[in-house]
Design a protein that fits this description.
two-stranded antiparallel sheet; two-stranded antiparallel ribbon; mainly alpha
């Protein structure tokens, strides 16, 4: 919005400094700072509001005993993150860019699903919340509608996206030589699975103080780089062509959204670090996960997201394996799932699990960026 309102004024000599608004890196930094200040400054007040309304975390009775002391800790802190994320994105991104509105819409919609789930848990004082089938129904409905428009629609979509929207980029392979072609209907289903899967995987990872937000920020920062490179033209040369990745000029604005995720993440982490003063709840984890999934789809990094979000993938797979194996044999593979609880049951202190998972997330992010040259 600031770009839309103020950038045209740079034509006046006295306001020529506003020309800086045309540069994505400047707005990238401003979005990070704005979202950081909003969350960092408002969380003390927001935590007090949550406490006054007795909106506290409900703890699983079969979980690690060290978690019992966390019962009653203010939850649904992700609501403030979502507000700051949307506000900073709207302020600093180009409002005429359809990609920005797509990723923002998915994030907000999944935040609403998380809000319904959280309020259900608090009202019933249980960890059940919204039924899994209804949660997935809402998530898939949103994803299929949006992805259907992305892969079948015409109006409002940028031309560079229309040219490659049915193609899938494979890590380690040059996009111009080895694009993966999928029928539109199959791509709609596949991309919807990416968004829904990422959302729920982040939700499963959110089980320890600061565990989920660390990899979320790392992934968002990586997507910011990938989105910027996808749309960057340097000295008249298309950088995406040199790297042989999908060229989507309009994707550059997505780095503003990704930067806002990093900003709200840092602001939230100040209060969520061990021992946590507030939890994000499903309103935060489902929304942030949905946003990351949308970034993967819109930047054509659906397959790379498996590597970049490796922590989320392992967490989700551990639950699937645990449930499936238990139903077949009546026995468990892990001491407890998701897998971060397995390590707690083995005696690892919570901070050790958190920091080691962060380290793995950083290594995976570096490796993901390295694939830009390993082709």
């Amino acid at each position: 919005m600031i770009y839309y309102l103020l950038y045209p004024l740079h034509e006046y000599e006295s306001l020529s400094f506003l020309n800086v608004l045309r540069y994505v890196p400047f707005r990238f930094l401003m979005a990070t700072i704005t979202s950081l200040l909003l969350t960092f400054g408002l969380y003390p007040w927001f935590i007090r509001r949550l406490q006054s309304k007795q909106i506290g975390q409900v703890i699983r009775t079969d979980g690690p005993e060290t978690h019992f002391s966390k019962a009653g800790t203010p939850t649904m802190g992700g609501a403030l993150m979502l507000l700051a994320l949307v506000l900073s994105t709207v302020l600093w991104a180009d409002p005429s860019n359809a990609m920005v509105w797509v990723v923002t819409l998915i994030t907000v919609a999944y935040g609403v699903v998380g809000y319904i789930d959280d309020t259900s848990k608090i009202r019933t004082r249980s960890t059940g919340g919204l039924s899994g089938r209804y949660k997935l129904l809402l998530q898939f409905s949103t994803a299929i509608v949006v992805c259907g428009w992305l892969y079948y629609g015409e109006a409002g979509l940028p031309s560079d996206w229309l040219e490659i929207r049915h193609r899938l980029a494979a890590p380690f392979f040059a996009f111009s030589k080895y694009p993966i072609e999928l029928p539109p209907w199959l791509y709609v289903i596949f991309s919807s699975f990416v968004i829904v899967g990422t959302s729920n995987a982040v939700n499963l990872t959110d089980g320890l103080d600061g565990l989920a937000i660390g990899p979320v920020m790392i992934s968002a920062g990586t997507y910011a780089i990938l989105a910027y490179l996808a749309g960057l033209t340097l000295f008249g040369n298309v950088v995406a062509g040199y790297l042989d990745i999908p060229h989507i000029e309009s994707a550059g604005e997505l780095s503003i959204f990704a930067a806002s995720v990093v900003g709200v993440g840092f602001g939230f982490l100040w209060y969520n670090t061990y021992p946590a003063q507030v939890f994000m709840g499903d309103v935060g984890s489902l929304a942030l996960g949905g946003g990351l999934g949308a970034l993967a789809v819109l930047t054509k990094n659906e397959l790379l997201s498996v590597i970049l979000g490796g922590i989320f993938v392992v967490e989700a797979v551990s639950v699937i394996l645990q449930v499936g194996y238990f139903r077949m044999t009546g026995r468990r593979i892990f001491l407890m799932a998701p897998i971060h609880h397995h390590f707690e049951k083995k005696g690892w202190p919570e901070p050790r699990v958190i920091v080691r998972f962060w380290i793995i997330a950083i290594v995976l992010a570096v490796f993901s960026l390295a694939t830009l040259k390993l082709r």
